[in-house]
Amino acid sequence: MEEKLKNLEEEFNAEYQRVVTFKEVECLKVKYLGRKSQLNRLFTQLPTLAGEERGMWGRRLNSLKVKITSLLEEKLKRIDHKEQRVDLTFPSTPLQRGRCHILSTVNEKICSIFENLGFVVIEGKEVEDEWHNFAALNIPLEHPSRDVFDTFYLDLETHNKGKNRTRHLLRSHTSPSQIRVMRQRRPPLAVISPGRVYRPDEVDASHSFMFHQIEGFAVGEDINFSHLKGVLLYFARSFFSPDVHLRFRPHFFPFTEPSAEVDISCIICRGHSRKKSDNKLKVSGQQQRKCSVCKGKGWLEILGCGMIHPKVLAMCGIDFSKYRGFAFGMGVDRIAMLKYGIDDIRLFYENDTRFLEQF
Ligand code: DAH
Asked: Which CATH number is 102-122+174-356 given?
Protein backbone atom coordinates (compact mmCIF):
# COMPACT_ATOMS: atom_id res chain seq x y z
CA MET A 1 0.00 0.00 0.00
CA GLU A 2 2.80 2.34 1.00
CA GLU A 3 4.59 1.74 -2.28
CA LYS A 4 1.45 2.18 -4.38
CA LEU A 5 0.59 5.44 -2.70
CA LYS A 6 4.07 6.81 -3.18
CA ASN A 7 4.17 5.89 -6.88
CA LEU A 8 0.76 7.34 -7.41
CA GLU A 9 1.73 10.66 -5.90
CA GLU A 10 4.98 10.86 -7.86
CA GLU A 11 3.28 9.96 -11.09
CA PHE A 12 0.63 12.61 -10.47
CA ASN A 13 3.22 15.29 -9.64
CA ALA A 14 5.16 14.55 -12.82
CA GLU A 15 2.08 14.72 -15.01
CA TYR A 16 0.75 17.76 -13.19
CA GLN A 17 3.83 19.76 -14.16
CA ARG A 18 3.22 19.07 -17.83
CA VAL A 19 -0.47 19.96 -18.21
CA VAL A 20 -1.24 23.39 -19.58
CA THR A 21 -4.71 23.42 -21.11
CA PHE A 22 -8.15 23.23 -19.62
CA LYS A 23 -8.80 19.96 -21.43
CA GLU A 24 -5.59 18.39 -20.11
CA VAL A 25 -6.46 19.31 -16.54
CA GLU A 26 -9.89 17.78 -17.04
CA CYS A 27 -8.26 14.53 -18.26
CA LEU A 28 -5.97 14.49 -15.28
CA LYS A 29 -8.92 14.90 -12.96
CA VAL A 30 -10.64 11.89 -14.51
CA LYS A 31 -7.43 9.86 -14.38
CA TYR A 32 -6.59 10.56 -10.73
CA LEU A 33 -9.94 11.20 -9.10
CA GLY A 34 -12.44 9.48 -11.39
CA ARG A 35 -14.34 6.28 -10.64
CA LYS A 36 -11.80 4.13 -12.44
CA SER A 37 -8.79 5.91 -10.94
CA GLN A 38 -6.11 4.06 -9.02
CA LEU A 39 -6.90 6.13 -5.96
CA ASN A 40 -10.49 5.02 -6.06
CA ARG A 41 -9.37 1.42 -6.38
CA LEU A 42 -7.22 1.82 -3.26
CA PHE A 43 -10.24 3.21 -1.43
CA THR A 44 -12.23 0.12 -2.36
CA GLN A 45 -9.51 -2.05 -0.77
CA LEU A 46 -9.86 -0.33 2.65
CA PRO A 47 -12.57 -2.67 3.98
CA THR A 48 -10.19 -5.62 3.59
CA LEU A 49 -7.73 -4.07 6.07
CA ALA A 50 -7.71 -4.57 9.83
CA GLY A 51 -9.34 -1.88 12.05
CA GLU A 52 -6.36 0.32 12.96
CA GLU A 53 -4.67 0.04 9.59
CA ARG A 54 -7.92 0.85 7.87
CA GLY A 55 -8.17 4.12 9.80
CA MET A 56 -4.60 5.12 9.08
CA TRP A 57 -4.74 4.30 5.32
CA GLY A 58 -8.12 5.90 5.07
CA ARG A 59 -6.70 9.17 6.37
CA ARG A 60 -3.66 8.99 4.05
CA LEU A 61 -5.74 8.22 0.99
CA ASN A 62 -8.07 11.05 1.88
CA SER A 63 -5.30 13.55 2.33
CA LEU A 64 -3.82 12.58 -1.07
CA LYS A 65 -7.27 13.02 -2.62
CA VAL A 66 -7.63 16.48 -1.04
CA LYS A 67 -4.15 17.43 -2.22
CA ILE A 68 -4.77 16.33 -5.82
CA THR A 69 -8.15 18.09 -5.86
CA SER A 70 -6.76 21.40 -4.64
CA LEU A 71 -3.74 21.26 -6.96
CA LEU A 72 -6.02 20.68 -9.96
CA GLU A 73 -8.33 23.51 -8.93
CA GLU A 74 -5.43 25.85 -8.52
CA LYS A 75 -4.17 25.00 -11.99
CA LEU A 76 -7.61 25.56 -13.50
CA LYS A 77 -7.77 29.01 -11.96
CA ARG A 78 -4.48 29.92 -13.55
CA ILE A 79 -5.54 28.84 -16.99
CA ASP A 80 -6.82 31.75 -19.01
CA HIS A 81 -10.52 32.20 -18.48
CA LYS A 82 -11.11 32.49 -22.23
CA GLU A 83 -9.43 29.21 -22.93
CA GLN A 84 -11.81 27.48 -20.58
CA ARG A 85 -14.90 28.85 -22.37
CA VAL A 86 -14.14 29.24 -26.05
CA ASP A 87 -14.34 26.17 -28.15
CA LEU A 88 -13.54 27.34 -31.65
CA THR A 89 -14.76 24.12 -33.16
CA PHE A 90 -18.25 24.59 -31.71
CA PRO A 91 -20.77 25.23 -34.53
CA SER A 92 -21.97 28.83 -34.44
CA THR A 93 -25.59 29.94 -34.38
CA PRO A 94 -26.59 31.05 -37.89
CA LEU A 95 -26.34 34.81 -38.47
CA GLN A 96 -29.64 36.56 -39.05
CA ARG A 97 -28.81 38.78 -42.02
CA GLY A 98 -30.77 41.97 -42.31
CA ARG A 99 -32.25 43.17 -45.57
CA CYS A 100 -33.81 46.23 -47.10
CA HIS A 101 -37.48 46.74 -46.28
CA ILE A 102 -39.59 46.07 -49.37
CA LEU A 103 -40.76 49.70 -49.40
CA SER A 104 -37.15 50.94 -49.44
CA THR A 105 -36.35 48.57 -52.29
CA VAL A 106 -39.35 49.71 -54.33
CA ASN A 107 -38.59 53.34 -53.53
CA GLU A 108 -35.00 52.97 -54.71
CA LYS A 109 -36.02 51.10 -57.82
CA ILE A 110 -38.51 53.82 -58.82
CA CYS A 111 -36.01 56.61 -58.15
CA SER A 112 -33.30 54.87 -60.16
CA ILE A 113 -35.64 54.53 -63.17
CA PHE A 114 -36.14 58.31 -63.17
CA GLU A 115 -32.43 58.87 -62.55
CA ASN A 116 -31.80 56.97 -65.79
CA LEU A 117 -33.81 59.70 -67.51
CA GLY A 118 -31.70 62.45 -65.94
CA PHE A 119 -33.87 63.30 -62.93
CA VAL A 120 -32.02 64.17 -59.71
CA VAL A 121 -33.22 62.95 -56.31
CA ILE A 122 -33.86 65.69 -53.77
CA GLU A 123 -35.50 64.99 -50.43
CA GLY A 124 -37.97 67.55 -49.17
CA LYS A 125 -39.05 68.31 -45.60
CA GLU A 126 -41.21 65.99 -43.59
CA VAL A 127 -42.31 68.84 -41.32
CA GLU A 128 -43.75 71.52 -43.56
CA ASP A 129 -45.38 74.88 -43.04
CA GLU A 130 -48.90 75.54 -44.29
CA TRP A 131 -47.69 77.80 -47.04
CA HIS A 132 -45.56 75.14 -48.73
CA ASN A 133 -48.06 72.33 -48.08
CA PHE A 134 -51.13 74.27 -49.29
CA ALA A 135 -51.05 77.91 -50.39
CA ALA A 136 -48.03 77.72 -52.69
CA LEU A 137 -49.65 74.71 -54.37
CA ASN A 138 -52.77 76.73 -55.09
CA ILE A 139 -54.79 75.08 -52.31
CA PRO A 140 -56.44 78.01 -50.50
CA LEU A 141 -57.46 77.79 -46.84
CA GLU A 142 -61.14 77.16 -47.55
CA HIS A 143 -60.63 74.81 -50.50
CA PRO A 144 -62.51 71.49 -50.07
CA SER A 145 -59.56 69.45 -51.32
CA ARG A 146 -57.73 70.60 -48.21
CA ASP A 147 -59.97 68.47 -45.97
CA VAL A 148 -58.36 65.17 -46.88
CA PHE A 149 -54.96 66.76 -46.37
CA ASP A 150 -55.61 68.58 -43.08
CA THR A 151 -53.53 66.61 -40.72
CA PHE A 152 -51.05 66.47 -37.91
CA TYR A 153 -50.41 70.09 -36.88
CA LEU A 154 -47.46 70.62 -34.64
CA ASP A 155 -47.93 74.09 -33.15
CA LEU A 156 -51.57 74.63 -32.36
CA GLU A 157 -50.82 77.36 -29.86
CA THR A 158 -49.11 79.56 -32.41
CA HIS A 159 -52.16 79.21 -34.60
CA ASN A 160 -54.55 80.25 -31.87
CA LYS A 161 -52.52 83.28 -30.90
CA GLY A 162 -51.89 84.99 -34.17
CA LYS A 163 -53.71 84.67 -37.48
CA ASN A 164 -50.69 85.61 -39.52
CA ARG A 165 -48.32 83.09 -38.08
CA THR A 166 -47.77 80.08 -40.26
CA ARG A 167 -48.50 76.70 -38.71
CA HIS A 168 -46.35 73.62 -39.15
CA LEU A 169 -47.60 70.16 -39.90
CA LEU A 170 -46.42 66.73 -40.96
CA ARG A 171 -46.72 67.12 -44.73
CA SER A 172 -49.71 65.49 -46.33
CA HIS A 173 -48.01 65.00 -49.70
CA THR A 174 -44.60 65.32 -51.30
CA SER A 175 -45.76 68.10 -53.65
CA PRO A 176 -44.31 70.86 -51.38
CA SER A 177 -40.89 69.58 -52.48
CA GLN A 178 -41.69 71.10 -55.88
CA ILE A 179 -42.04 74.51 -54.25
CA ARG A 180 -38.85 74.22 -52.22
CA VAL A 181 -36.80 73.20 -55.25
CA MET A 182 -38.34 75.67 -57.69
CA ARG A 183 -37.72 78.56 -55.30
CA GLN A 184 -34.09 77.57 -54.85
CA ARG A 185 -33.06 76.49 -58.33
CA ARG A 186 -33.67 77.87 -61.79
CA PRO A 187 -34.92 75.83 -64.77
CA PRO A 188 -34.20 73.57 -66.52
CA LEU A 189 -35.15 71.21 -63.70
CA ALA A 190 -35.91 67.48 -63.55
CA VAL A 191 -36.37 66.35 -59.98
CA ILE A 192 -37.65 63.30 -58.15
CA SER A 193 -38.48 63.65 -54.46
CA PRO A 194 -39.38 60.64 -52.30
CA GLY A 195 -40.53 60.63 -48.69
CA ARG A 196 -43.06 59.93 -45.95
CA VAL A 197 -46.44 61.68 -45.91
CA TYR A 198 -49.26 61.82 -43.35
CA ARG A 199 -53.06 61.82 -43.69
CA PRO A 200 -55.96 61.89 -41.23
CA ASP A 201 -57.09 58.47 -42.49
CA GLU A 202 -58.54 55.60 -40.48
CA VAL A 203 -56.13 52.68 -40.73
CA ASP A 204 -57.52 49.76 -42.74
CA ALA A 205 -56.34 47.35 -45.45
CA SER A 206 -55.82 50.16 -47.96
CA HIS A 207 -55.24 53.23 -45.74
CA SER A 208 -52.52 54.23 -43.35
CA PHE A 209 -52.05 57.53 -41.49
CA MET A 210 -48.49 57.46 -42.80
CA PHE A 211 -47.31 56.21 -46.16
CA HIS A 212 -44.77 57.01 -48.86
CA GLN A 213 -44.93 59.08 -51.98
CA ILE A 214 -42.65 60.00 -54.83
CA GLU A 215 -43.05 63.38 -56.42
CA GLY A 216 -41.56 64.08 -59.82
CA PHE A 217 -41.45 67.20 -61.93
CA ALA A 218 -39.63 68.86 -64.77
CA VAL A 219 -39.54 72.51 -65.75
CA GLY A 220 -38.09 73.92 -68.95
CA GLU A 221 -38.79 76.21 -71.86
CA ASP A 222 -40.46 73.66 -74.07
CA ILE A 223 -41.79 71.04 -71.69
CA ASN A 224 -45.22 69.75 -72.73
CA PHE A 225 -47.74 67.04 -71.92
CA SER A 226 -46.18 64.54 -74.31
CA HIS A 227 -42.95 64.66 -72.29
CA LEU A 228 -44.99 63.76 -69.24
CA LYS A 229 -46.59 60.85 -71.11
CA GLY A 230 -43.25 59.61 -72.40
CA VAL A 231 -41.58 59.77 -68.98
CA LEU A 232 -44.46 57.94 -67.28
CA LEU A 233 -44.66 55.28 -69.97
CA TYR A 234 -40.91 54.68 -69.63
CA PHE A 235 -41.35 54.36 -65.87
CA ALA A 236 -44.36 52.00 -66.07
CA ARG A 237 -42.70 49.75 -68.64
CA SER A 238 -39.41 49.62 -66.71
CA PHE A 239 -41.03 49.00 -63.36
CA PHE A 240 -44.02 46.78 -64.11
CA SER A 241 -43.62 45.14 -67.47
CA PRO A 242 -42.54 46.13 -71.01
CA ASP A 243 -46.00 45.42 -72.39
CA VAL A 244 -47.93 47.59 -69.96
CA HIS A 245 -50.24 50.32 -71.35
CA LEU A 246 -51.14 53.66 -69.82
CA ARG A 247 -54.49 55.41 -69.60
CA PHE A 248 -54.78 59.12 -68.76
CA ARG A 249 -58.12 60.11 -67.22
CA PRO A 250 -58.94 63.83 -66.83
CA HIS A 251 -58.97 64.81 -63.17
CA PHE A 252 -58.63 67.84 -60.94
CA PHE A 253 -55.66 68.85 -58.82
CA PRO A 254 -55.31 72.48 -57.73
CA PHE A 255 -51.59 72.56 -58.53
CA THR A 256 -51.75 71.25 -62.09
CA GLU A 257 -53.72 72.30 -65.17
CA PRO A 258 -54.66 70.21 -67.05
CA SER A 259 -54.54 67.32 -64.58
CA ALA A 260 -54.97 63.60 -64.99
CA GLU A 261 -55.02 60.38 -63.10
CA VAL A 262 -53.01 57.60 -64.68
CA ASP A 263 -53.85 53.91 -64.81
CA ILE A 264 -51.77 51.01 -66.02
CA SER A 265 -53.30 48.04 -67.79
CA CYS A 266 -53.78 45.34 -65.14
CA ILE A 267 -50.53 43.47 -64.64
CA ILE A 268 -52.37 40.31 -63.57
CA CYS A 269 -55.06 39.85 -66.25
CA ARG A 270 -53.20 42.15 -68.70
CA GLY A 271 -56.37 44.11 -69.20
CA HIS A 272 -58.23 41.11 -70.61
CA SER A 273 -61.02 41.22 -68.08
CA ARG A 274 -62.07 44.66 -69.32
CA LYS A 275 -63.00 43.13 -72.65
CA LYS A 276 -66.62 42.06 -72.29
CA SER A 277 -66.26 39.06 -74.55
CA ASP A 278 -63.51 37.71 -72.34
CA ASN A 279 -65.77 37.84 -69.32
CA LYS A 280 -68.02 35.35 -70.99
CA LEU A 281 -65.21 32.96 -71.76
CA LYS A 282 -65.59 29.58 -70.22
CA VAL A 283 -62.53 28.07 -68.65
CA SER A 284 -62.83 24.27 -68.41
CA GLY A 285 -66.57 24.53 -68.38
CA GLN A 286 -66.75 27.22 -65.68
CA GLN A 287 -67.44 30.93 -66.04
CA GLN A 288 -64.11 32.80 -65.91
CA ARG A 289 -63.79 34.73 -62.63
CA LYS A 290 -63.16 38.47 -62.57
CA CYS A 291 -59.54 39.44 -61.99
CA SER A 292 -59.22 39.96 -58.24
CA VAL A 293 -56.66 42.76 -58.58
CA CYS A 294 -58.41 45.09 -61.05
CA LYS A 295 -61.88 43.75 -60.17
CA GLY A 296 -62.56 43.20 -63.83
CA LYS A 297 -61.88 46.81 -64.81
CA GLY A 298 -58.65 45.99 -66.61
CA TRP A 299 -56.97 49.13 -65.26
CA LEU A 300 -55.12 49.99 -62.05
CA GLU A 301 -54.71 53.58 -60.88
CA ILE A 302 -51.08 54.41 -60.12
CA LEU A 303 -50.62 58.18 -59.91
CA GLY A 304 -51.81 61.75 -60.36
CA CYS A 305 -50.15 64.21 -62.71
CA GLY A 306 -50.50 67.26 -64.88
CA MET A 307 -48.90 70.43 -66.17
CA ILE A 308 -47.74 72.64 -63.31
CA HIS A 309 -50.30 75.41 -62.77
CA PRO A 310 -49.03 78.86 -63.87
CA LYS A 311 -49.98 80.18 -60.41
CA VAL A 312 -47.63 77.65 -58.81
CA LEU A 313 -44.77 78.63 -61.14
CA ALA A 314 -45.45 82.27 -60.31
CA MET A 315 -45.37 81.55 -56.54
CA CYS A 316 -41.88 80.19 -57.09
CA GLY A 317 -40.74 83.22 -59.08
CA ILE A 318 -40.65 81.33 -62.38
CA ASP A 319 -41.81 83.23 -65.47
CA PHE A 320 -44.76 81.15 -66.69
CA SER A 321 -44.83 82.87 -70.05
CA LYS A 322 -41.41 81.40 -70.71
CA TYR A 323 -41.37 78.15 -68.75
CA ARG A 324 -43.67 75.13 -68.55
CA GLY A 325 -43.48 72.15 -66.28
CA PHE A 326 -45.09 68.79 -65.66
CA ALA A 327 -45.51 67.10 -62.30
CA PHE A 328 -46.66 63.76 -60.98
CA GLY A 329 -47.08 62.10 -57.61
CA MET A 330 -47.37 58.41 -56.80
CA GLY A 331 -47.86 56.32 -53.67
CA VAL A 332 -44.95 53.94 -53.14
CA ASP A 333 -46.96 51.62 -50.87
CA ARG A 334 -49.72 51.27 -53.46
CA ILE A 335 -47.23 50.61 -56.25
CA ALA A 336 -45.48 47.96 -54.15
CA MET A 337 -48.86 46.36 -53.36
CA LEU A 338 -49.77 46.19 -57.04
CA LYS A 339 -46.39 44.85 -58.08
CA TYR A 340 -46.23 42.10 -55.46
CA GLY A 341 -49.94 41.32 -55.06
CA ILE A 342 -50.08 42.52 -51.44
CA ASP A 343 -53.64 43.13 -50.30
CA ASP A 344 -53.12 44.85 -46.95
CA ILE A 345 -51.01 47.99 -46.46
CA ARG A 346 -50.65 47.25 -42.74
CA LEU A 347 -48.34 44.35 -43.55
CA PHE A 348 -45.62 46.89 -44.41
CA TYR A 349 -45.68 48.35 -40.92
CA GLU A 350 -46.26 45.41 -38.59
CA ASN A 351 -42.66 44.26 -38.66
CA ASP A 352 -43.63 40.63 -39.09
CA THR A 353 -40.42 39.11 -40.41
CA ARG A 354 -42.33 36.21 -41.98
CA PHE A 355 -43.81 38.76 -44.37
CA LEU A 356 -40.73 40.97 -44.78
CA GLU A 357 -38.37 38.06 -45.43
CA GLN A 358 -40.21 37.19 -48.63
CA PHE A 359 -38.73 40.16 -50.43
N1 DAH B 1 -50.08 65.50 -54.26
C2 DAH B 1 -51.09 64.62 -54.80
C3 DAH B 1 -51.65 63.76 -53.70
O4 DAH B 1 -51.04 63.58 -52.72
C5 DAH B 1 -50.49 63.73 -55.87
C6 DAH B 1 -50.16 64.50 -57.10
C7 DAH B 1 -51.14 64.63 -58.09
C8 DAH B 1 -48.93 65.08 -57.26
C9 DAH B 1 -50.86 65.37 -59.22
C10 DAH B 1 -48.63 65.81 -58.41
C11 DAH B 1 -49.63 65.95 -59.38
O12 DAH B 1 -47.44 66.40 -58.61
O13 DAH B 1 -49.33 66.65 -60.49
O14 DAH B 1 -52.73 63.26 -53.86
From this structure: 3.30.930.10
